[in-house]
Design goal:
alpha+beta; Beta-Lactamase; Helix Hairpins; Heat Shock Protein 90; 3 domains; five-stranded antiparallel sheet; 15% strand; disordered C terminus
Length: 577
């Protein structure tokens, strides 16, 4: 039974519940106030009748006594009073209302002798007629009945029917107004609840649309400072996040599918080549040693390419795991110098320069010190004729001696590499530079990072610059510090074809290439810049691509300076107990 009532109650709509409860509470309140008011009003009316009856009884008693003593006062008793005279023994001698039937007269059953009347002490009594339809309020007072001083009893009674009619009239009026108030309250409550819940109906419709897959729906129309308005604002925020998450999920799934397809294609291409050359060898199609050597060279190159691709895929997988970084203070300048040396070793014909800049200040640029270079096979001689341009101010450049930069001519480096080592020149260190002007103190480009990751970023960017720029064009590595925003940057500047603005946001996607054929010729896997973006993001940094003045592409990576609020923090390791 209880469960059935609960189920029925739960099936009722919220609007009906609120309207019904409001009407019920209003009805109960009106009933309680009406009953209480009626009881107090009836008591008050009876008290008024009682007081008036006792006053009139005293007046009438005095008048009858005066008449009995021969003093005619001319007092007239109102007709709505029933008056009865009893002798000292309680026998009825006279009563009014002689024309009223005996069954409608008040029935006096109590003893009215003088002793009993004196015991009442003027208190009122409740009497009824013979049919018990009418109630009377009566009082008995003693009086002198004749000139001899004989006492009797005067009984005066008044019907309470008029008082009951007054209370009944009040009750009728109250019930009428109460019913009107209940109906009006129910109607107003229904309208108010309906208008208040209108936004909730909109929420219901929006939720149904979202359940059907339309995540672009949003809620509106409610006043922001109301409960429904705050609910709508919270739901809109939640829907925006859900919509964004679903879009990101769809984009991630699409990227994953494209990634798997591209990875399969990239791995299949070298495997097809290896298999083809192997089948040619097995079938005896390679007759001469030159053909066999050429086939083996191609197999080796394809294997190297496939191994590099697998290494890049593993690196991306490790980055996706978001493992904690081994953060240490890292100076970007030595890393740039090392990358320049490595690039010059692999491309002796290139001029690669490391420079510093301060784009956010008007200070003179700080020319970096030349690093110690391991020249185990060199003669210790350093060419002094090569010059490099270092930006002095925006739009200006000055020439400084080569000892302040890392710049080697390809022929010189080739000559140094072909020299046979001697015991006396196991290590040659460049002499300390002599600055042409007093340098301005600069903030060191020290960031909180994992050194190997930063080296990989610079190496990947340098690899791109070497592959996609002419072999005789220079490459600059620029280190800059943004004092205002507390960040440092390393930029790789080439002077090649450049990157169109419309594809600059896409080049950091995995396996994305603007020219597939060119990428295959240059040996790129399409993952280098994706690795750069992942590493930079894990260090709370940013990477941007801009056009190099005069043509080319500039990849600039920003990292927060060590100690800045945005710098990545080391994880606090709590020792095991």
């Amino acid at each position: 039974m209880h469960q059935s009532l609960t189920e029925r109650w739960n099936r009722i709509s919220l609007r009906s519940k609120i309207t019904g409860v409001t009407v019920l509470m209003l009805t109960l309140g009106l009933l309680v106030s009406g009953i209480g008011t009626m009881a107090m009003l009836r008591q008050y009316v009876i008290q008024q009748v009682d007081a008036q009856l006792q006053a009139d009884a005293q007046t009438t008693s005095v008048a009858y006594t005066a008449n009995a003593l021969g003093q005619n006062t001319g007092t007239v008793v109102p007709s709505d009073y029933f008056v009865a005279l009893y002798d000292e023994n309680g026998e009825l001698r006279y009563h009014s209302w002689t024309d009223v039937p005996a069954r409608e007269l008040p029935q006096i059953t109590m003893p009215l002798d003088l002793q009993s009347v004196n015991a009442l002490n003027g208190q009122t009594m409740r009497l009824q007629d013979a049919s018990h339809d009418t109630e009377f309020l009566a009082v008995a007072v003693p009086l002198v009945t004749n000139v001899h001083g004989t006492y009797g009893t005067l009984v005066m009674a008044v019907s309470l029917k008029q008082s009951e009619n007054t209370v009944g009239t009040y009750l009728t009026i109250f019930l009428g107004f109460g019913l009107g108030v209940v109906l009006l309250g129910g109607l107003i409550t229904r309208l108010l609840v309906t208008s208040t819940f209108a936004p909730l109906r909109e929420v219901e419709r929006t939720a149904a649309a979202i359940a059907d897959g339309d995540f672009s729906q949003r809620l509106g129309g409610a006043t922001p400072n109301t409960e429904v308005g705050r609910l709508n604002r919270s739901l809109n925020t939640m829907l925006s996040r859900i919509d964004r998450l679903f879009k990101e999920r769809a984009r991630t799934i699409d990227q994953m599918r494209r990634f798997v397809g591209d990875a399969s294609h990239e791995l299949r291409t070298p495997l097809v080549s290896v298999r083809g050359y192997a089948e040619l060898y097995r079938m005896g199609a390679l007759q001469t040693p030159e053909e066999v050597a050429q086939a083996m060279e191609r197999i080796e190159k394809e294997a190297i390419r496939m191994g590099g691709l697998v290494e890049d895929l593993l690196e991306l997988a490790r980055l996706d795991e978001t493992k904690p970084l081994a953060l240490t203070p890292v100076d970007l300048l030595p890393l740039a110098r090392d990358a320049a040396l490595d690039a010059m070793a692999s491309a002796p014909g290139r001029t690669i320069t490391v420079v510093t800049a301060a784009p956010d200040t008007d200070e003179e640029p700080v020319v970096p010190l030349a690093p110690a270079i391991d020249l185990a096979h060199s003669t210790g001689e350093v060419p002094t004729s090569a010059l490099v341009t270092v930006p002095e101010r925006a739009g200006e450049a000055v020439a400084v001696p080569h000892t302040n930069t890392v710049s080697f001519a390809g022929a010189t480096l080739a000559r140094l590499r072909t020299r046979r080592p001697r015991k006396s020149d196991a290590l040659a260190i460049l002499p300390e530079p002599v600055p042409t002007a007093a340098p301005t103190a600069a903030i060191p480009a020290v960031v909180m990072a994992e050194e190997n990751k930063i080296r990989q970023v610079i190496t990947n960017l340098m690899g791109n610059a070497l592959r996609f720029s002419p072999a005789d064009s220079p490459i600059e590595l620029e280190i800059a510090v943004d004092r205002r925003n507390q960040r440092a940057s390393v930029a790789v500047i080439d002077h090649g074809e450049g990157i169109p603005p419309q594809i600059r946001d896409k080049i950091f996607q995995r396996f994305w290439r603007a020219d597939t054929s060119r990428a295959r010729e240059t040996g790129g896997s399409g993952l280098g810049l994706a690795i750069v973006a992942s590493i930079v993001a894990s260090h709370n940094g940013t990477v941007q691509v801009v056009e190099t003045p005069g043509g080319g592409a500039t990849f600039r990576v920003w990292f927060p300076l060590a100690g800045s609020p945005n710098a990545p923090q080391r994880l606090a390791i709590t020792p095991a107990p």
